[in-house]
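Fig. S4 source data, part A: sequence.
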Amino acid sequence: MKHNPTKKKAPAYSISGTRPRCKESCSPGPRYYVASMTRRGKEVAPAYTISGHPIVKTEITPGPSDYSPEKSRKHVYRCAPIHSISFRSKSFRVDSTPGPARYTIPKMLGPNTVDKTASPCYSMKWKSNIGYFYEDRHKTPGPAAYNRPKLDAYKHRAPEYSMSSPSRPPGDRTLHPGPAAYNIGKVTLKKSMSSGITFGIRHSEYTVPLIMEIY
């Protein structure tokens, strides 16, 4: 019966029967022992075989007259260099090469050279009429012809002050108090005052006094 996957499975063990023993006749006996056989093969002394020379048929071979040893000097022995000079080719013409006017050499001066570093160039010009010896110096502008800029335009601005006439209050014709209108003695509102002592009754004014009869 197969296991139900929705239930827990308890451990299960299988018990099998005893294995049969090996048969005694499965291995060779002592009579099959060979002393010269090892795990690397048969153990024997080295042996050599001697046979006759193989027969090679000689059919046609070159003779001594077929060789030219005198022609092997350049290939076998050292020799000096040899040069050959021949006549000019017939296809060559004198007027086939371009002349000097056919080439356009780039300029080496100025900044217009693309693939070369330009050298410094200087231009020399005639003297200007300004400042020349025949110039009339009386026609030059004087100091009054220039507008003097303010110092505040290119320096720190200095402090400035304005002075005007003294200001006067507007006229007031209303009545103002004079010196006699003030009471100088009553200054306790503004100045410190010493402590004062007041004598009075302790009982209330609404309490009936105690009247005792004296005989």
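Fig. S4 source data, part B ends here. Helices lie at 73-76.
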